[in-house]
Automatic annotation (TrEMBL):
Protein name: ATP-dependent dethiobiotin synthetase BioD
Domain of life: Bacteria
PANTHER family reported in the protein's UniProt record: DETHIOBIOTIN SYNTHETASE (PTHR43210:SF5)
Pathways involved: Cofactor biosynthesis; biotin biosynthesis; biotin from 7,8-diaminononanoate: step 1/2
Native species: Lentzea pudingi
Amino acids binding ATP: 50, 109-112, 170-171, 201
Gene designation per UniProt: bioD
The keyword Heme is annotated on this UniProt entry: no
Subcellular localization: Cytoplasm
EC numbers, comma separated: 6.3.3.3
List of catalytic residues: 37
InterPro entries with a match to the protein in the record: DTB_synth_BioD (IPR004472), P-loop_NTPase (IPR027417)
Annotated positions binding Mg(2+): 16, 50, 109
Main location: cytoplasm
Cofactor(s), by name: Mg(2+)
Amino acid sequence: MSVLVITGTGTEVGKTAVTAGIAALARAEGRRVAVLKPAQTGLLPGEPGDVAEVARLAGDVTTRELARYPDPLAPATAARRAGMATVHPKDVAAEVTALDETHDLVLVEGAGGLLVRFDEAGSTLADIAWAVNAPVLIVAQAGLGTLNTTALTAEALQRRGLESIGVVVGSWPSHPDLASLTNLADLPEAAGAPLLGALPQGVTKLGPVDFLGVAKRSFSPWFGGAFDPDTFAAQFAVQ
C-alpha cells in the first residue's frame, strides 16, 4: 500500500491526530511520507491548518492543501459561499499520482465524514478514494452513537466497492464510560474490519518525540506500532 485515504465518521473525531500518528510511524521507519488535504475549511489564508499540525507532530513530511475556504462548512458549501472554485476528484487524483511517484506513503485526509460534498456535482471523499484506487481507514469516536455512524460509513464504502482496512478510535477518553468500553469489542463488527488503534485524548498537545512514543503504543503493527486490541481492552474491567 502506498496511498491511504483517511475518513471520519463525522467531524472532530480525531482524523488529523490519526493521520499524524501514521505519518510519524512511517517516518520512524525511514519512509518518505506525503500528506494531502484536498480541502481545508474554517480557516483564513496563513492560518495553520490540518497539514501544518501533521507536520508539527510527525516531522519531515511533505504536505499539500489543494483548497482553503473561510467558513467552517462542507467544502462545496464553503466554496459556494466564498465564490471560490471547488475541488474535484480528478484534481486530487492528479496530485496523489504526482506525490506517489516520489514518496513511499501518501495519506489523504478527508474533511468531516465520508459523504461530505466537495463540489457542485456532489463528489465526496468516497469518489476521491475510487479515483485514486486506495483503501480507506475509518476514524471513529469512542462513545455512545459511534456504532451507528461507523456502520453507516462502512456500508457506504462497501456499496461503492471500496476497501475498508480497519477502524481507529481517534480520541480515547482518559476515563472511558461503559459505552466506550463495550465499543472496543463492537466497533470491529460495525466497521466490518479490525480495530487498528486507539489514540488517547489530548495527544496533539504533545511534542513530536512524545507523540511518536504514544503512536507506537496506539497503532497496530500494521502501521508500525504495538497496539493489540485484546491487550488494550484487558486494561479495563467491564461488568
